[in-house]
Fold these 2 entries.
Entry 1:
Amino acid sequence: MRNEMTLSFVAIEENEALARMAMTCFITPLDPTLEEISEFKTIVSEAVTNAIIHGYNCDGKSLVTIHAVIDDNKIIMTVEDQGEGIFDVEQAMEPMFTTKPLLERSGMGFTIMESFSDSLSVESMLGSGTVVRFEKTFSPVTEVSRMR
């Protein structure tokens, strides 16, 4: 099965939940386990929150765009903003690094996304925005595992 979608929304914190729910509905045909759903929702949440808070400083007028492709039992997804960009992607991906310590940001977003996905890449250019791309493969759920 192959399917594809694009979703754009205004960069406000309330739309993080919209993105998470829409993307979770999109992967429903893959019949993910509860653990896979939880991991996937966390990746989406972290990527979208980074775009809203770090890319746009919650400006409430710019757009975050998600593009997702389902191919067999795998999703390939990008979360893109046209915001500030990341000065040093390698440093930003280090655990505990944050540019917003006053907002009580833990600096674990990229680390969490990396641990829950099969692959994660981040491309960014100062003043032009950031694209977070990840892939996640879902295991087929068997009838036996559903009954547990």
Entry 2:
Amino acid sequence: MAKEFENSSDTSFDPVSSKAERFIKGTEIRKVTPRSAHQEWSPSENRIDPVRILIESSAGRIETLLPIRYARMMESPFAFFRGAAAIMAADLAETPDSGIHLQLCGDCHLMNFGGFATPERKLVFDINDFDETYPGPWEWDLKRLAASFAIAGRWRKFSDKNCKEFAWHAADSYKRHMSDYSQLSALQIWYADIDLAALIEMGEDEEIKKFHQKRIKKASEHTAHEKEFAKMTYQEGPRARIKEDPPLIYHPTLREEKMVLKAAEKAHRQYMESLPDDKKVLLSRYKLHDVAIKVVGVGSVGTMCGISLLMSATGEPIFLQFKEARKSVLEAHLKNKSKYFHQGERIVIGQKLMQSASDMFLGWANDDDNRFFYIRQLRDVKVKPVLEIMKAENMIDYAKACGWALARAHARSGDPSLLSGYIGKGNELANAIAKFSILYADQNEADYNQMLEAIKEGRLPIAPEM
């Protein structure tokens, strides 16, 4: 936090004060941290080398997968940004904040939003990645989200004017919906969600609407696990096996396989203990059949991630995804230390705090090597954004949707009246966030070029994906 804007006032939720009193308290914080201060970005003279941060964040990862990580980040400045949450966390720690803390996503970029089915089979739009979730300044999520729109917009060859507009709409939507949530009770906020079909219908581009409606229909046509089972497995005697696609999906070596499966069975039993009793009963109908390593995403490449196949006695499958849970990149830059020793538990609780509805199989476990994991269904009617087909007006609509989803998530653990009072009804905050986003897009490009130089010098390994 920049010292000249440091705010030591108590901004925890006050259930005794009225909404109006908390709103006024929010407006008073502007005197300490002006909203215009959020437009600022300039790297300090002692800014940590971004390549050094990448190298440090690779410690403890599977070394043979690191070349894939850097190869993916090389694809564009936007791909680099997706894998560089640790770099931006260090930078955000140097920016002004209002002192209002709540549960953060931590890696709040536009590809970490999308549609999915709730346990009640309703399709909603929400944040869907919480590896870095941690309590911290609310501005950090909004700045990373808005900057992702500016950076993705440049990748799509939109003008800087367009890119600034995308970032502005993300922040403006956040403001408007936070104001709406400030009028609701805590229970009403907890019940709130964003209906995916209704959200798509709000758009004015008929072509893109039809595209997304077809995607929803296709995603909902089959039971997700049965569809994946047909694509991802083969039969080996009485046992179903996950198909390999090296280096992205693979089994441990034959020598290690029995040991790994035994460890997986132990971790699975531990995972079951983290679930509510009703889900334990449900999953007790299934037996662990196979486990494979699966390389996922950009920022997660090199961590221990994979899929496990469970089968019932009558042949029905369930695929679970396990992801290694490391310390949040935010923790090193905040005074408050995590109340959760188990990093998987940290992620699960953070996700349940922020999402309108979480995966019913969401749980955690650890292995004998002291690695922490969180576990969820592999896919369940997931609908991801397709940036490649978006026109400028579609990017604006998507920015509004993401800003809305972030406001809803923040309103659950934060104080929407206090936040709404600080943000105000005008455009000052959105203007500041939009300016910051363009400045940070410039910084991201400079860091991306530094990474390319480090690769040329051999400091970072790369290899083509197969």
